[in-house]
Amino acid sequence: MFNHALREIASMIAAIWIGLIIGVSFYAAPIKFTAEGVGLDALLLIGQVTFQNFTWVEFGVFGILLLTALSHLNKSAFICMGLLAVSLLVQKLVILPPLDVDLNNVVSGQPRPSGYLHILYGVLDLVKMSLLIIISLLLRTNEQPAEVTEVLAD
């Protein structure tokens, strides 16, 4: 009974995390640019603070998910959790620092750089959401899913 409850809690945490990503990355971030009377510099700085802090929230949610799901992870779910961790680290350590430099350049009046880093960040958010759906499904099923190596071999 306790194990079943932990699996359900872990599955709910994954769903909540998906909602957080949708709310922050795909709703709040773009909609702030529709605010009238707020300069681009201020909006960019708000975005910087939002995403710098949101990644820490995501690390916290990842830790909670890992603690609640750890004893229920089969090999496939464990690999998905590893890919989720890599996605988080890439966003925090590889994508956000150059975005901060770009932001500082724009605020200081330099031309706006290409948006490929923003696109990459968004793609990784989609990857994280996909992984969270897979993890949630793997936690909710009693069957042993096919292992990733078996799927890739087909």
Using only C-alpha atoms, the radius of gyration works out to 18 Å
What is the mean pLDDT? 88
Distance between the termini: 36 Å
Uncertain parts: 143-149
Q: State the share of residues found in helices, binned by percent.
A: over 70%
N-to-C SSE string, H for helix and E for strand? HHHHH
Based on helices, strands and strand pairing, what is the structural class? Answer: mainly alpha
Number of domains: 1
Q: What fraction of the residues are assigned to beta strands by DSSP?
A: under 5%
Number of helices: 5
Give the overall shape: elongated
Q: Profile the largest sheet.
A: none
State the total count of DSSP E strands.
0
Short description:
This protein is 81% helix and 0% strand. By secondary structure, it is mainly α. The chain has one domain.
Describe this structure in words.
With about 150 residues, the protein is mainly alpha-helical. It has one domain. The protein has helices at about 1-30, 40-70, 75-105, 115-140, 150-154. The relative contact order is 0.16. The model is unreliable at about 145-150 (pLDDT under 50).
